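User: Batch of two.

Assistant: Item 1 of 2:
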Amino acid sequence: MSYLKFDKNLLINLDQSLRKEILRTNQAGAYTCTSLAGCNTRKQHGLLVIPIEEFGNRSHVLLSSLDETVIQHGAAFNLGLHRYQGGVYSPNGHKYIREFDCESVPRTTFRVGGVILTREKIFISQENRILIRYTLVDAHSPTTLRFRPFLAFREVEALCVANDRINKHCEPVENGIATCLYEGFPTLYMQFSRKAEWVNDPNWYNGIEYIKDLERGVPYCEDLWVPGYFEVPIKKGESVIFSAGVAPVAPRSLKKMYESEIASRTPRSSFFNCLKNAAKQFYLRQNHGMYVISGYPFGRVIARNTFMAVPGLTLAIDHFADYEAIMATALGALRNYMDTGHISSRIEGIDQPDIALWALWAIQQYRKSQGAEAARKLYTEATTTITDWILGGGHPEIKVEESTGLLCVDGYDHAVSWMYSARRDGTPIVRRTGKLVEINALWYNGLRFAAELAEGNDALSERRAEWLALADKLAPAFRACFVNKAGYLYDFVDGTYAEASVRPNMAIAIGLDYSPLDRRERKSVLDVVTRELLTPKGLRTLSPKNPGYRPCYAGNPDERDEAMHNGPARPWLTGFYADAYLRVFGMSGVGYIDRMLIGFEDEMSKGCIGSLSQMYDGNPPYDGRGAVSHATNVAEVLRTLRTLKKFEHEM
């Protein structure tokens, strides 16, 4: 039985099937995403969504959907599904779905009377092309398939409105057509593996609604252009492959292309394999470097998320060369910023004050995976440069307090940590400034790690001694600054003010390899985190005891911004929590962490199938919110699975 399989009863129930989404990417920034029922529920959904370099690499929906119709004896049975104004669903093709599974590729099985038809989708790696294979499993009379493309040609955050400016021309190509609705966009080629008849039947389909956007209080209604339809006769046992891409293809090559792509895929036959596949979907390979997409469907490359996610997305699944390629690109951008102050146009937020510290942590994970010698060979220069740059006051927003060695940052008017995105009137809703607990814990860890990597290097002996001396001074200063009488850590300290809100940043401080706290202190903090922040979906961003607790990232934009870092749980924090728990309890903690991960395995058949959402409600039933698939969450759960595996080998 397939690990990810859904039956008719769930699929025809739109309350359930529209809440589940399926995502596939091509490691070049393009993706396809929709609901299990095939009805787009977000403006970012689409059958072919690609980044366009000429438009700042922003993602654009070219082909929104493709409606299939089965024709027998002159009767048409439309398998498509759209939601129109007023909450009307049409043409209700979901009632013909009998099964959906996605162990190798997403496959939907339809039954229309005596006709059984399967639809399988696959993205071609490193190419902006999606292939859909239709197989007529059973039929008792002549059958024709009709395909009606719904075109958008718009940016993912925009909506299409019926207009007279579109180019309505469709150019015939081999077994298909080519069209481009607006100047500056790439041409879309829609072709079949066998001869297809094209019928011009141009129409605007008005008032298509996206229910997820409606719920989020943002614009949610658009018009889509349908230039006509294809018709292909098909016999029992035959298959036909549809291709949509930005370059023409030889139709005779589609079968081989499809089979070759399937052969290279890892089956989603287990929790680990699901996350492994999800991890690879965040890879972005381009001519000028390799990057990490922070989350889908938004498709941004963010420096902090890159360094936080790269160990789990690569090392935890034995993709060591990919780690080195991603780090070469990201460290290159960081080095350029340190040397010139230039901010990368491709990697957002490279100038944030904690980025260099997360880079040190990411290198530390490579050392743990590949050994000290490999890490010294590749990254000694980088760790040395970063450490000395911080100490030398290289970052304009970081101040090293001379008496203690603690780092101070100015986050009063703008966000300076991972609690960064929610803003009101241009200023952070969660305002963290002064001495931040996780930044100083990362700094202590970074100093110790830099010294570890420099061990035995005569050229660095003096600097190594300086780093160790500073770390020795930093540890008691950290405890004096952040440890409070209640047994946990202040979130930040600004002058004489200490923020006592129970937040998960203290979990980072106790989960690092080098923690400034002793075992007793770490256990005390761990107890508070477990009691007030732990959920089956990660750590809450704020304790429910706090009057500002907002557990659900829902409602209009202002309501969501208010909640973003004030309650919803983040799965990626589980990685640091697990590290801390295993350091405190050792082998006896393995079973507990293993059971804790069950909450994430449950998500493989919810939300975005086979992946993890950006955040989850802080209260039951812990619904997924935000980006449907998020890099740091997938990465840290994978890293936790790999950590458990190492512990089990030692038992």
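Item 2 of 2:
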Amino acid sequence: MDSRSSIGTIKGIGEKTEALFHKVGVYSINDLIRYYPRGFEIFDDPVPVSEIEEGRVCTVSGTVFGRITVSPGKMRRITSLNLKDLTGTLKVIWFNMPFLRNTLGRGGLLILRGRVVRRKEILVMEHPEIYYPAGKYEEKLHTMQPVYPLTAGLTNNTVTKAVKQALSCADDNDDLLPEELAKKRGFLPYKTSVMKMHFPGTKEDFAQARERFVYEEFLTFILSLRRMREEDNRAENTFAFRDDPRIGQFLGELPFTLTKAQMKVWQEIKADLQGKHVMSRLVQGDVGSGKTIVAFLGLLLAGFNGYQGAMMAPTEVLARQHYENISGMLEKYHLPLKAELLTGSMTAGQKRQAYERISSGEVSVIVGTHALIQDKVVYHKLSLVVTDEQHRFGVRQREALAGKGSAPHILVMSATPIPRTLAIILYGDLDVSVIDEMPRDRLPIKNCVVDTSYRNKAYAFMKKQVSEGRQCYVICPMVEESESMDAENVIDYSRMLSEELGDHINVGYLHGKMKAQEKDEIMEAFGRNEIQILVSTTVIEVGIDVPNATVIMIENSERFGLAQLHQLRGRVGRGKHQSYCIFMTASKSDETKERLDILNHSNDGFFIAGEDLRLRGPGDLFGIRQSGILDFKIADVFQDAGLLKTAGEDAAEILADDPLLEKPSHERLRTYIDRKMKDFLLDTTL
């Protein structure tokens, strides 16, 4: 067994478990070695019951006080007990584990570890791990235990055991970094680093190992983008884009005037379309800054010059909304172009008719999802490709759509607020434009940061908004590693909220375990105001435009990164009514207060991104997956900005010396990039 062996060669992994590992992208021993923990559990001494805090994972020690009860019913039985120590009593519950009544009813000291939540004004520990007898906890005391990303059926214990075996195959010869570069940056040897990455003895061990692999992740990512950029720059513009007076006429008839920032970006796009080389441009703009209208101008110019333009959105519901908005503008302003919608859920007959209209050139603007890049789609004269929300698409998907035409222009829109300097490094294959000015008619969102004692007032406020015809979002963070528990949390919350608000208010819910069609149906029902309050996980971060939604309440807001909180807040403030964002937090720490105060006093995404970077810094070991921006395994563009800059400089030096990575010292780096990097950006959709 070596690092190239199949995952199935590991002792204890049969066909079923191997298939589960395949689901999370682990096929070989080397894949498993690089399957890093998503975080760590640090096993500290138990705390007194009187000192537990809402929203935190705590360890408590005590004895069972009174009877252990199991609720009746077949669907979701709840086992409850009271744990008592010298300082107080804590209610503890487990879901669908009735056998615990017999196991835990024998007496003796019991140690429990789990998240504490507030239910009906009392603190409750939900579904904790059990250490009985208590001596079992001492084996883990003061250790850091890895917590891995999982899928249904794959347990953390299974992954941990497999990783321990895989690490015996770790070899310094598998190191992607050239030896000279690793020494230059003072990194530990590869084998030592992967050991510390999975099973660190201390936080310092982990920080040292993580720094090495964050750097490696950034370096391979940037090298891939730089090489793609070099290829793109050789592509000549084969399309003749001439100015058309109908563009100016359309702008003059709009009920609003484009901001200076929008006009500047439009001029940059137009110059690219009329230039010598194919355009590859990223348009960054904060939520609500008006990126879509700028992209629409590019699609219009393509159509007026006899070409086609395509816009790809990450979800069907968002694609449909873009299509309806574009069709509406074409009709309202008497623009002589036709639009087409193409999504996966359309019937075979509908798709066939759409394919015919696209291939014949009858339609000029094609809007859709991944269906736009299917083999059956043949474009007439595709000259411009617009992708919406870039961080939801991989490079491969962008290339696939671009490959549908004869080297079409590429325009990427993103509402992700990354500081410009980082954007230039990250999107190295694209020129960067920024719309940094909001339309004048936008009412600023009113924010408030409150503790959990405000929750009933928040419910009353949402109830009042609904009575005035408005709608609301409630966001729940992921509370467990498994999607099923995540879903359970959202479902439970929506039931509780429905009981609290009454039958006349329809409360819906949305979570990541739902099928895409189910999510779209819920979002469309919300868009039609058939659902007044939507309880959701962060799957609504990129959603449809619902101008009637005026309130978003984010539970446990301290558990999100500032950039993601800002993205979530962008779900409201899209209509003519005043909108509100309520950041609910159980944390009383000064750090949380400082972070949330930034959001409380600013709606500027680029300012917030810079503050996020300043506050989090390189010391935030366990905030490595909070940003929700790019799906690096462990790297974070804010926290690790220094490493990102260093990797960018080193990548430039490497390519200046060896543009095709042909030197023997770069062989492993080149092989890895060729195999992995084309779909390095997040490929998942909502």
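The two ends are 38 Å apart (CA to CA).
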